[in-house]
Amino acid sequence: MKQLLLLRHGKSDWNTHCSDFERPLKKRGKRNAKEMGLWFRRGFRRGFRGGLKEGDREQRLFPDILICSPAKRALNTAEEFSKAIDYPTELIRTDDRIYDAEVMDLLQVISEVGGAHSCILLVGHNPGLDELLEFFVPDIKIPDDGKLLPTATMACIQLSQSWQTLKHDHKVLNYFIQRPKDLP
Length: 184
Prior knowledge:
Elements: E1 2-8, H1 27-46, E2 53-54, E3 57-58, E4 65-68, H2 72-85, E5 93-94, H3 103-111, E6 119-124, H4 128-136, E7 154-159, E8 172-178
Helix pairs in contact: 1-2
């Protein structure tokens, strides 16, 4: 079983005079990234109720590898989330292909992850992450606001095949999406 975690970066600060790549997170973006991490950590420890399942038991998720866009807002999101789940921030990998990525770019990044990793956390941007989620779950219901992954939202996808075969045959066994505004 493989689990793919998609985390969109937190709310960015459009009031700064910098390039899109250098745009930082707003305070809300940092707070939401940390809150998502704390929610994930609680779920990891007890299993995700109503979330991913294998047989009759709840799955306990924790990323083996975290791959992030090098854009400032994505990297800051990954750092805040990592601190909250006790994932060493020095192990965060950046990949230039995630910034401004299309589905095939993201699939290529994922397919290069070694088979020993069972859970990947990918931190990036829209529209690429939305499109990747739709690739895996073509019949997914689009929310009324039209956004699958608004800022700081996480999707967890359970897959049946290896990372290297995602381009050819993608079978999703289960998935769920958690938005910051819906956190318990």
